[in-house]
Amino acid sequence: MGCDYIALANPGVQGLQPYQPGKPVSEVARELGLEESAIVKLASNENPLGPSQKAVDAMARAAGDLARYPDGNGFALKAALSARHDVAAECITLGNGSNDVLELVARAYVAPGDEVIFSEHAFAVYPIVTLGAGGVPVVAPAQDWGHDLAAIADRITENTRVIFIANPNNPTGTWLKRNALQTFLDSVPERIIVVLDEAYCEYVDEAEYPNGLLWLERYPNLVVTRTFSKLYGLAGLRIGYAVASQSITNVLNRIRQPFNVNSVAMEGALAVLEDSTYLARSRQVNTEGLRQLEVGLSSLGLAWIPSIGNFITFDTGGDAGSVFDRLLQRGVIVRPIGAYGMPCHLRVSVGTKAENQQFLEALSAVLKEIADGG
C-alpha cells in the first residue's frame, strides 16, 4: 500500500492515540486462560450493583419497538430531567454518553488554531476532542493532583475558546469547592465556553460541593455535563446530557447527529431516574466501599488520593505497570493511568465488598512478591 492514510488525516488527528478503555473481563480471560467468573473488573468506574431492575424491565418493554427510530428530540427524557433539575427542557442536549456532548462543544466552538484549556491529570477525552477539532490543547499544571484554577486563569488568552473542568476529577477524585469555582467563573470572559463535567456528582456528599446547574442563569457561557453511566448503572447503553443556555443548546443541536440516543437507553434512563431505592443503595455501597479501600490501602502502606467519586487512585511506590500486570494474573483488573502523567499510580473502581476484598488481597500478594524479588 503506497498511500499514507495517517498523513492524509487532519493534523490534530495525526498525533492522537486511540482512547484505551479498561480491559474487559472476556479479554483477560482469553489472554490469561482464566475463568471469567473468577475475574473482578474494577477498571472503568462502573456501578458494581448492575442496572436497576426497574430500568431492565422498562428496556425489555422498549425492545418490542426496535424497528422504529427513537424520538430524535428525546421529549420524555428531557421532560423528566427538566422536572428533576428545575431547568427548561429547551436547555438540555442528550448525548451518546456525556463524551458525546463534550465532543459537540468542541466541534461547535473550536476552530483550527483555537486554544482549549484543561488541567494536568484531567479526563483523557478533553485533548482528544480538542485535537480532533483542530484546536490547540493548553494544559494547566495541577495542584495536589487536582485543578489549579489560578493556573487555568493565567493561561487564558485571546485565542481561548473553551475551558474543560471536571468536578470531581477523573482519574484523581479531587474536587473544587463552591466559592473557589464561583470566583473563577466570575473571572472568565463570556466569550469563552466553560464546560463543567459533573459525571460523578451524584456520589458527592460534601456541603461545599457546588451544583453547576444552579449557576446557569448567572453564567450564560456555562455548560454542565452529566451521565447515566456511573451512579445510574447504564454505562453499556451510552447515555448522557448537557444543560446550558438555550442559545448554546441551540448551537449544539445543530451539529448533534439525528437519533444519537437510542430508544432503549432513553427508556432505561427514564426508569432509573425514579428508582430511588436503587440510587440510595448505590450511594451507600460506594460510600462503604471507598472507606474499605482507604483502610485497606493504608494498611498496605500505600498513599492514596482522597476521592469523592466511585474510585480511588493510589501510589504503587514504584512501577505501576508491573503491579497492574501482576494483578491481572490474579484475575483483578484495575486501571493504569500513565497516560494521565501518573506512571506510579493505579486507579481502582469501588466494587462490592467482596470485590474490594479480592482486590486488596491480590494487591497484598503482589506487593509481597515484588518485595521478595519475585
Short précis:
The protein is α/β, with parallel strands linked by helices and 374 residues long. Helices cover 39% and strands 15% of the residues. A hairpin with an 8-residue loop joins strand 12 (335-336) and strand 13.
Structural commentary:
The structure is a single chain. This protein is of the alpha/beta class and 374 residues long. It has helices at residues 5-8, 11-14, 25-32, 53-62, 75-85, 98-109, 125-132, 149-154, 178-187, 246-255, 263-273, 276-299, 320-329, 353-371, and strands at 40-41, 92-95, 115-119, 136-140, 160-166, 193-197, 222-227, 240-244, 304-305, 311-315, 332-333, 335-336, 345-349. It has a 7-stranded mixed sheet with strand order 2-8-7-6-5-3-4, with helices on both faces. A 4-stranded antiparallel sheet has the order 9-10-13-12, with helices on one face. Strand 5, helix 9 and strand 6 form a beta-alpha-beta unit. The mean pLDDT is 95.
